[in-house]
Amino acid sequence: MVARIRANDPSGMEELYGVFTTGIRFYLCRQLGPQDLDDKVHDAFITIAQSIRRGDLREPERLMGYVRTVIRRQVAGYIGAAVESRRNMVDPDHGAILRDRKPDPERKAIEDQNNALAMRVLNTLPRRDREVLVRFYLQEQTPDQICRDMGLTATQFRLTKSRAKARFTELGLARFARHKGFSASATAKRKEAPAARAS
Amino acid sequence: MAMANPVERHLDEEAAEKYSLGQLSARKVVEIETHFLVCECCRQKVAASDAYVAAMRNAAAELRKEQAPRRRVAGK
CA–CA separation, A33 vs A28, rounded Å? Predict the structure, then answer.
């Protein structure tokens, strides 16, 4: 593929897109958010192709790592530019105003639902388990520190975390099932039906 | 016996969570990010982990906020 990109063969670019588009989209979206994502992905491919053609990628077998390095630099560039532009926006000498960037409503709705689920999980846990999770996720204390301060073993700590995550997943799946119109009880009824008919 | 290339290894849940929390070494981050560029299954793990960590963090912050006035009252 690298040889074909270097030779300007369109099939090389096609393959590059096929292999990396979803991964690059995911990476850029995770780091920078969904704004102008298509343009950013397009820019990434142009940069990657140009640098391959220039001969910057000396070992073709390192293509994956090379792509990651290029998009990492691209992200750093966007962040640098955003910091600079924000600095200009808050600088009264520039006379500009801060723009309010509203989050994508669908994304916001999903986040709100996830937050509500997490709250439900925390509220149903014993106080001690809740404290473990607050220390870990909010205060970013290390597992060692939490275990030491709260007199827990590493296993107890892991169990507390994994139980909470399992509960979150369970509640999330139940919510998903309700949205799709096949709640657990409905599924159970469907399962019972053939037996009822048989009897 | 040849060792598997770390970039080709799938993430386990713990690594995904540490990645979401920003608790991995720079070297491990490079390995993971290079891997998920081409691995849908690991992208899904990271996305789920990001969502979970963010939700727990927000809920924990909310809980602390709710508890704060009670603590202040109890402390008086």
Answer: 7
